Every structure is written in structure tokens, then in C-alpha cells.
Amino acid sequence: MGGFKDEVSIVLGGAAGQGIQTVEEILTHALKRSGYHVYANKEYMSRVRGGINTTEIRASSKPVRAFVKRIDILVPFKQGVLTWVKDRLSESTVVLGERENVEEDFLEKVNLVEVPLTKMALETGSQLYLNTTAAGLIIGLFHGDFEAIEEYIRKRFESKGENVVKKNIEAAKKGYELGVKLCEEGTIAVDVQRDEKAAGDVLLTGTEAVGIGALAGGMNFLSFYPMSPSTGVSTFAAQKAEEFEVVVEQVEDEISAINMALGAWYAGARAMVSTSGGGFALMSEALSLAGMAENPVVIHLAQRPGPATGLPTRTMQGDLNLVLYAGHGDFPRIILAPGSLEEAFYLTAEAFNLADRYQVPVIILTDQYFVDTYYNLPAPDVKKVKFERHIVEAKPGYRRYELTENGISPRAVPGYGEEVVIANGNEHDEWGDITEDAELTIKMQEKRAVKKLETIKRNAPLPKLIGKENAEYLVVSWGSTFQVVDEALEKLGSEKIAHIHFSWVYPLNSETKRFFGGKKVIAVENNVTGQFADLLWKELGVKADHRVLKYDGRPFSVEEVLDALKGVVE
Amino acid sequence: MNVQLPTGRELFEPKRPGSEDIAWCPGCGNFGIRNILISSLAELGLKPSQVAIISGIGQAAKMPHYINVNGYHTLHGRAIPIATGVKAANPELTVIAEGGDGDMYAEGGNHLLHAIRRNPDITVLIHDNQVYGLTKGQASPTTMKGMKTPTQPWGVFEEPFNPVALAVALDASFVARTFMGHFRESVEIIKRAIQHKGLAIVDILHPCVSFNKVNTYAWYREHTYWMEDGPLDREAAFRRALESDPLPLGVFYINEKPTFEEQVPAYWNDKRPLWQREPKLNLVERFFEETKG
User: Which range of residues forms the domain containing residue A281?
Assistant: First the structure.
């Protein structure tokens, strides 16, 4: 009936609380262990029970790292799922599941392969085993390694007792056997080659990549107030706090969170806050203090659509302008936006060195799509993470805001050395005491907003160019859209287009301009106005000839980017 | 003034350029508080580099410039979370959060509530002159009802904030009130507050000679009395805290309990301040190994 070669896109849909996430976890881990390249991403509603949430899992013989619109196999766990994803269904989509979960209107139109998942779960002992039965079924379609499922189930359910583990394995086995049977009968044909390399890869989410990157960068303090979709990073840090000896504290509000982090940095910690747009808005006063007091701080901001509460659980690259301009007065800041999980790891680690070196706020911009994305990747090379410490001893005569050529004053911390350290949010002299002196004010303004900014710019890494330097078109992406543009361009296979990706978003090295000479520029952004395209114009005088924008709260799919680029080029 | 000043005070006198230029009005109560604080630090035998004063914004919050210890003059209302961060990053430091009644009770009110719950081992000194000084005479949360100001020309009609009752109600670890006109008693209270393990709140009454014509030196002397029986149990302390005329002075309440820094896993096995630590890259390697499975 349905045949899929080299790659399959599987979508699971159900109500919040139905356990879709468990299926996603078992599937991605077991498929990866079996030697398939996997990618997964979820979209969910802002509710705890009910509604419809879906997860897409791509399993492939080659690495896959981006969202596709196409659904090859759909597993609905309740009525309404097909309607919710109707734009993503095609003639070749196979719906795998129970007839009662398919709306009347669709029965005639879709390829339904009926599998009695509920009945099978009940046979095992309870409706509760529905998820593991479904996971087993899908792995069975791949003839995946059953031991991989078994192992993962053991790990996942260990704390719930041997009986729960045994029952879940039994449920998965029933599903697995049915999956194998469906293939053998020729009902569904899945022909995806395994790749040994995938089995030895790590499987990470964006949240984990940021979290472990922070720990690799020496984060030893994290204060936060919960806010979707950023909370995962704080949860990760809390789970690791004992092992890594980190101060993790949930505080009364985001104002407190960032001020605590500033205090911690002032005393020599490596502190981070994790938040989303609304929380960051509350932090802007303290951001300004960080600018004036030259107090380092690392901020992770997982974007979601605004304004205000917007769409709490969905995605948007809409807060670039917020982080660019937040805070009263002029002061430098660094904005990073990883495009891959590897970059999330290395850049988050490096953010702590940058904050320490330049004594500025360093903001890591991700978004809901990025933090909730999973895929397999070779384990990042931990040896590449360099730990820099820029703390000096406060010797007699120490001046916290000593005027220097590059705008960076030696930073001492209280308690290291005999001299005291005075930091100040008021305009100050070199010692840190309040000043109203006009000449000194000029010097201090220029120290921060000109000299230091120039130093950062000069040392800013250049963006990554993929494709030919003399291509006619240049597609610009930043942050989370890297992988989707990359795959779309690979599919397009045109030498006319090159791709330039910015994971170092601000401030831009002035050398960056040379990539754009004589090219038609296409900006791809997950927001309504093209905020980065505007920044390119402002910073480099580079004009985007085309803007490919998506702002429905959903991530770009490979197909959408491909169609848009075709539209521009052809 | 005939008071015995301790030795070692000199250490806390700043000698940076311009240190002699103090921005307080002649006769301001803040001079007295500075004097009390310097004596307290000296009598405790602390070194300037071991102490950090984190202040908010306002006349009181200028203290870091007038005392030779580590200092961070921060934002209006934010001294407490910043001081909490400082202490959590380096528990070896003696950390003081300092500011006025507007700073700590209005703009920073929410932080005060939650700091009491969190119980970091810091001392919160509130210069309470019942009026806004630096912004020139508007009512503060502790201004008495009926007082006329440029922005409350019909007289303040809000109930005044009762910081002592609030702190006792929230089961704060150490709660005291003093009047800076009583030098020796104030030094003893501040020394006890600094030595107390846990969050110590000291509401320090002082006159504003420029903008508060009601609560003068003479007024405070007439409308306060020293308790002879503090610290009290929680109920008695709360009852005492409700007395408004005369205002009781002294230590109302002490509740010894674990501090924030004692409870965070960062210090369970390693007592070093955070600035001395390095990333645990071996554990990062191990995380990736585990993630392969």
C-alpha cells in the first residue's frame, strides 16, 4: 500500500496528557540506537490536558535536521488529529491506527491501515500501555533492534518498578511484532538503510545542547522564573545542579533573576538566566545596569511569538529587536543565535568567556522550535571548549573602571586581593565612585559605547558561507533557520544560490560586508518584518532584495523554503 | 558628642579621590548611620576586602562611596537580589544590602518578601526616614497618614507600611528596629544583625532634615522606647510590632534556620567561592557518553 524509501516522516498526534512525548522519546532513542538518523520536533498547545499536540519524527539513512511539512505515516491517538494536520496530508500518507480516531470525512480519502492499538494495550493489562505499543509498532516497521527499545524502556521506567518495566516491554513487543508483520505482508514497505555512525552518535534536544554548553562554559549559577519555552534549560540545570555543583534558584520574578545573576558575576560566579521575551522585557532595567557597571551576564532567551503573551508554546524569531535595543542608554552587548545543536553547545560555552572578557551582557537567542528540536549528532569535542578566566587580583590602588585603549578595564572580584572593588550603575570615575564631571562622562561613554564596542566588533567571527563565493544569490539566515535553509538548498541543487548563516548576530564585524558584494540578497526569517534584514541594512548597508517571512507561530518547513526560493530564482 | 569610638575605624574611611565630598545634607541622619556602621564593622574586626555593601538608589544608597568596603551601587529596589547573588557566589563575604524606605519597601518590596522566604545570610539595613529624599519630599511607604507633601497636597491617605510586623509575619530570621540617634544601642544591634546567620532586617529610623518636618530628631526621641524583653516569641513580637506610638526599638524576633547558601548543592561538598572553580569538563564528557545510549 505505502512504500517509503531512504527516509520516512512519521507524525504522532494526540491530546496533551496522552503521552505522545513518551512515544517520541522511545522512538527517537530506539531508532537512533538501531542505526537510523533521526530528527524530531513537537508542536503543542498551551494547555496541560486535551487539545491536539503533534510530534514529527524523521528517520533516514542520511543525517536529517529540519522540519518537513510532508507526513508519510500518521498515527492519530484521538479524533481531530487529521483535521489539525490536513494541509500536510497527501495521497501517499498512510494513517496507522484505529478507525475511531479518524474523522468521518477522511475515511474515504486516506490510506488507513487499521491497527487495534487500544485492544493490544488492554491485552497487556491497561490502556496505559498504548504508547509503548505504538512505539513498538513503528520500530517494527523498520525492523529496528528490539533490544534498543527494551534498553530504553528499562532506563525510562526503572524508577517505577520491575513490573512496569516488564509490562511496557511486553506491550512494545506486541506492537513490534505487528509492525514486522505489516511489512512482511506488504501493507507498508519501509526501506531505510542503517548507518553505523548514527548508532554511536549522541541524541540531544536544543534545550540540552544549551544546558550542557552552559555547564561546559563553567556556569555555576542560574536564577530563573519559569516561562515557556525557556524553562527546559532551567530544569536541565536544576537536574544537574548537584553533580555540577551549581547554584540554581527559582526566584520571585525575572527582575530578581537577572539582578541575582549580576550580583553573582560581580562576586566572580559564572551566572546565567534563562527566559523568554516577556521575561526579558522585565530584565531590561538590569541589562542597562550591566551595561553601565560593566557587569558580565549570560542570558538565554528562547523566543516565542509576541507581543505580550502571544502564542506561549509556539515559535518566532521576533525578539531580535528587543535584545538589540533593550535597556536605556548606549552600551555594547553580544547577541548569539545558534543554527545547530553543535553551535548551541560551543556558543553557549563560549558565551561565558565572552561575558568575562568583554564585561558585557551576552544573549543567546533560541526559539521554541530550536529548543524542542532533537537530532543525532557526533558527540561535540569537549576538548575544543576553552576556559578563559579574566579575573585580576585587587591590589592596592586598584581601579575597577580604569580607562584603557580597548575599553576593557581589569575586573577584580571582592575578596580576591586586599583592595576593595566598587561597581556602580551611576556614571562613575575610574575607581567606581559617582561623578558628575562632564569630561569624565564623555570618556566613560566612549569607553563603553565606542571603544569597547569596536574591540568586540574587530574580534567578532565572520558568518558561515555555504556554497560558492561568486553565486548570483545569497540566502541569509540566522539562528534556528540554518538547517531548514540548508536542506532546502540541497534539494534545490542550484549553483546560483549560496547560503550565509549568522550565529554571531551582533555586533557585526565590518568585514562581513564583503560576502554581499554584487549579490541579490534573500533574507529568510521566522518573523513578520525581517528584523535581521533591517539590521544588515543598518549595520552594513546591505539591502535585502527579497524577504521570505513566516509568522504563523510555526517553523519553516523544508518545502516552504524550497518553494519560496524557487519562486525568487526562477 | 561624648561617645567611645572603637579602634580600627580608620580602615573603613575611604581615601579615594573625592571621598571627602559627601552628598548628604548637613545634619542628615545618614551621617549618623555611617558612623554607626563603621564602628560596627571595626568592632567586629572585619577587613574592608571581606565586606560588600550592595545598595539600591537614593540618598541612603550612596553609602558604598562613603565607606571603604567592596561596594556595588545598583538600581532602585534591586539591592536585595543583587546582594543575594553576591553572597551565594561567595559565602565568605559579609554582605550588606542597604537602602532607604522607598528603595526597600516600595520599589524593592517584592524582593524583600521573597528574600525573607529564601533566607540568604545577608544583613538588610533600611534607612527609614519616612519620606523620599533624593526625589525631594514625596511620601514613602512609611510616611505617616495625613502628612502633606508636594505630591500628596491633601495629605497621605494610605496606611503606612509596617516593616517589623511584616518581617515577623513572614517568620524572618532576625528582625530589629533602632533609631540612629542612639549610637551605642544601634552599633550593638547592627553588630548582632551582621553576626546573625540568616537574613537580618534592621529598620533604622532617622530624620530627614530637608523634607520631613514631622519626624525630627526630637520626634523620634519622644515617640520611641527601648524594649527590655526582646527578642520575643513570634506572637509576642508581632503584637509588639503593632505598637505605633511610641514605637518600640530593639531586637523583636530571632529565628535560627538554615540559610539559602547552606542549602544549595553548590556548597554541599565544596566550600570554595564560585570564582575559584573551573568547568567540570569530565562530567560534560560523561553526559555525552550517557546520551549515546
Answer: 204-379
A424:B89 CB<8 A: no
Q: How far is B293 from chain A (nearest CA, A)?
A: 7
Residue type, B84: T
Q: What would the pLDDT profile of A39-72 be if each residue is shown by its tens digit?
A: 999 998 888 888 999 999 999 999 999 999 999 9
In a shared domain, residues A17 and A137: yes
Shortest CA distance from A249: residue in chain B: B264
Query: What CA–CA distances, in Å, run from B181 to A218, B83, B186, B219?
Result: 48, 27, 8, 11
Backbone φ and ψ for A5, nearest 5 degrees, come out as: -115, 140
Q: Mark whether A421 and A316 lie in a shared domain.
A: no
pLDDT exceeds 80 at position A341: yes
Cis peptide before B91 (omega within 30 of 0): no
Best mutation target, B38, B72, B267, to test chain A (most A CBs within 10 A): B72
Residues on chain B touching A254 (C-beta within 8 angstroms)? none
Q: Are residues A474 and A543 in the same domain?
A: yes
Three-class secondary structure assignment of A168-199: HHHHHHHHHHHHHHHHHCCCEEEECCCCHHHH
**Tell me: the pLDDT tens digits for B183-235?**
999 999 999 999 999 999 999 999 999 999 999 999 999 999 999 998 999 99
Q: Whole-angstrom Cα distance, residue A175 to residue B142?
A: 69
Strand, coil or helix: A408: coil
Whether residues A155 and B72 touch (CB distance < 8 A) is answered with no
Same domain, A339 and A209: yes
* Of A262, A271, A433, Cβ closest to residue B18: A433
Nearest CA in chain B to A350: B279
At A384-425, the pLDDT tens digits run 999 999 999 999 999 999 999 999 999 999 999 999 999 999
A441 in helix, strand or coil? Answer: helix
Instruction: Report which of B224, B111, B114 is spatially closest to residue B176, judged by C-alpha positions.
Output: B224
Give the pLDDT confidence score for residue A1 in this predicted structure: 57
Which residues in chain B are closer than 8 Å to A246, comparing Cβ atoms?
265-266
> Is A384 inside a domain boundary?
no
CB A206 within 8 A of CB A375: no
**Residue A20, C-beta contacts closer than 8 angstroms, at least 6 positions apart:** A12, A13, A14, A42, A53, A54, A55, A77, A131
Encode pLDDT of A442-487 as tens digits.
999 999 999 999 999 999 999 999 999 999 999 999 999 999 999 9
Domain final position from A151, A170, A200: A200
Query: Please, where are the H alpha helices in A493-557?
Result: 531-540
- Is A171 inside any structural domain? yes
Inter-chain touch B90–A413, beta carbons under 8 Å:
yes
d(CA A113, CA A111): 6
CB A344 within 8 A of CB A480: no
CB spacing of A263 vs B277 below 8 angstroms = no
Instruction: Tell me the C-alpha distance between A33 and A41, whole Å.
Output: 18
Would the CB atoms of B291 and A420 count as touching at under 8 Å? no
Enumerate the residues of chain A whose CB falls inside 8 A of the CB of residue B110. 252-253, 256
The cell for A528 is: 513578520
Instruction: Name the band, by pLDDT with cuts 50, 70 and 90, for residue B6.
Output: confident
The answer for residues whose C-beta is within 8 angstroms of residue A418's C-beta and 6 or more apart is A394, A395, A396, B49
Whether residue A386 lies inside any domain: the answer is no
Q: How far apart are CA A482 and CA A502, in angstroms?
A: 9
Given CB atoms, is B5 within the 8 Å cutoff of chain A?
Answer: no
What pLDDT was estimated at residue A19? 85
Domains of chain B by start residue, with CATH = 9-292 (3.40.50.970)
Return the C-alpha cell found at A344: 548551541
Q: Is the CB of A420 less than 8 angstroms away from the CB of B54?
A: no
